[in-house]
């Protein structure tokens, strides 16, 4: 492919993003076909090329002649271009060396010798995605962007980071682990463990689902790399040495071990030229062999312990799973067939595992490992339950094996098989904005194991092969026999709560610390003090980052991307006693044969006592049967004709007034255009005929919802902390806290801990909500995203739908009562091992002139102050500031923050406010421009087809409002930033929420904090 052939596909800078999709896929396919096997382009030899019609793309594979580096490029008419480089990184222990190396690699390189160029590039770029990821035995560095200059800038930084990192010892100590005085320059203060990854993994393994997964893999994969924790086990991380890190990098971060992936419309020859220039200094390297022979030969039962979950039923906290080693992932069709088989066995209410394990309410839901893990070279399938009684372990194991025996004997209903395949085919058609990034990440694990990247992408071929295989009876039955019933490589893993678990873990850490300290010689102690002082100095030193490439403000489009919509009324049956019409918003776009629809019902008059039940109502939606179908039959019908039917509730303020809040129930679905009629019929059935009196199924929904909510806290604790804090500040945030925050987690947990004894009371609340939705005159509106060709079909069936529902589209009363903020400090006790914190201040509505400066202030505080104070100095995995433009709250947060750092973190927030009030003295125009780049990076991110036009539908924010805010962002000055800091932060009241261990609760209580438990 020549540069001229792609000349019309892009421009030198993103001045106007309307140039998306101006290249024809035919031209790209022709370009791919112009490469001949054996042709050499900038040091890379073409191996083969292939069209992949199901995704409208073509692919080419090349190999670097000097080093053997592998390369795949995908030509697709998508301007969200992708780069990814991955390495096979197997481990022989749980020190977390690939994870710590992933962090340290991005702390400076030969051509870019600044500290942390990765984080600094976040606000010098318009990247739509930018990260680094560590898998079980692979590490990858992906990014995506729509701007060709940005693409080259980021590729330059990523290539230098991965192949020429500085790997300074102090960076290893900051990112990995170190012994350091609690006060770095005070030798009399105690020595403690510090390090970003160390604290990250303490937090990760406080998540009960992650802990269960990690501990269950150890016995299953004994004798292979997968028995170890690639991310690092805190108990082992402190054994890793700096030299081991350096040696690992030299072995595995080599072009001979590299897999390069690029995607999109940008010129491949330019990619090859740049990459070749970075690889020329390397010679081919013979890589070490990875043992993949598990010692597991016979079924085995293993027990482990975990902390109790304070939000669950204390008598039902055992987790268990039966796991089987299955096929190698390099057999692409076998992997695809196993994925389908696993789905047949467990997905949906018609699945035999669901009927045997979930329906009888033995537990609260599937165990964290349940499903098919295809991202390991030797894959596994796991079936299990969480939230069971200790005495039910044998019962669950017997039920699992009985289901497998029954399935092997009787097979699966043809319609159920078709419904699973339909979901796969439907998934192929969605026009996702991050499609290239998804392909690059999913492909990498298979590719580094020796899989064929083209085979991996040819999904339609596997579907066709599966259909042919199913013509012969016994296909899935034979797989069940081979991989489950006759498979002796099986582990039954049981995890039970130990009331002393957290205390024992803390004691082990202190014992490990004492052992380390006892072995220190005098010169070791002196070095620790010297290193701590030097690291603190480096962290506080302002660097010259001009060596890093950057986009300019002129590279940002002055006008934002607009997704035009039209709104027309749909008239109801004129014979109705109350004839009326509904507003329908239409977005006509290329959807690849899929239609998306959303119904939104205003809930302004819903009684307050029903609000806590709304999320449960939405979760129950389509998870109960109807008056005409059982749940299994309903579930199969939904899967066969749609991409699912979902419900959600949200409370949003008006863009012009924070006291005008609208609570809305939204019902969404999507389908192939040929299934528009049955989609609307199913929506109507679920909305009007759901069996809310199905007590046992509702009990199952409650238990599942409580378990999922509890797990979410450890994974996104900072979000919950900010929600709890901001829930006292604005009306919309207060409602969202009730519906989706810690208050909702506690509400569901209380129901679960009570064993859902008052299930009839829950039934009553669900029935009241359903009755309200059916009878209330609240405003209803609809949105449809589709091609123009099927709009008339939508109109026909929409009219029938709303007529069946009996909903009326009139305006109803809007809650505009004034809200009085309250301010407090709340400490939520949870067995997390680390802290999650949030602190909130009151801001302004979306359209207010100060909203844009507040948004930029949040970016400046994150990148210029809090990242250094909370992550680099404090050792938290993350921390920063955010501004919710719609909710009007300014928030500080920290994520997986060392428990002992709370006072330090809260002090950092206070210092951040002080810094903000003097911002013109700390930074200049360049830093402000970078904050604008970072802000527009999020605003201008490309949308999937299903998202187009939804902003105005869900929030009321019009394109004119968006453009006015865009112009205000461009015009904001440093003095504007200083003024909003003084106006909204300095000396202003705030609310703080902390999720932390119970051990610190007494201290906080003595300081006047509200202590909130979940018992």
Explained architecture:
- Mean pLDDT is 91; it is low at 1-25.
- The chain is of the alpha+beta class and 1015 residues long.
- The longest helix has 23 residues, at 851-873.
- The chain is 43% helix and 20% strand.
- Helix 20 (522-540) packs antiparallel against helix 30 and helix 24 packs across helix 27.
- A hairpin with a 4-residue loop joins strand 2 and strand 3 (57-64).
- The radius of gyration is 28 Å and the shape is globular.
- The N and C termini lie far apart (65 Å).
- The strands form 5 sheets. Strands 1, 2, 3, 4, 5, 6, 7, 8 and 11 form a 9-stranded mixed β-sheet that branches. Strands 12, 13, 14, 15, 16 and 17 form a 6-stranded mixed β-sheet that branches. A 6-stranded mixed β-sheet has the order 18-19-23-20-22-21.
How does the helix and strand content classify structurally? Answer: alpha+beta
Q: Got a strand count?
A: 29
Report the helical percentage: 40-55%
Measured by DSSP, the beta-strand proportion falls in 15-25%
Instruction: Report low-confidence residues grouped into runs of 5 or more.
Output: 1-25
The biggest sheet amounts to: 9 strands, mixed
Q: Termini, distance in Å?
A: 65 Å
Mean pLDDT: 91
What is Rg? 28 Å
Shape from CA axes?
Answer: globular
Question: What structural keywords apply?
Answer:
single chain; 1015 residues; alpha+beta; nine-stranded mixed beta sheet
Short description:
This protein is an alpha+beta fold. It is 43% helix and 20% strand. Helix 13 packs antiparallel against helix 18 (475-485), helix 24 packs across helix 27 and helix 30 packs across helix 35.
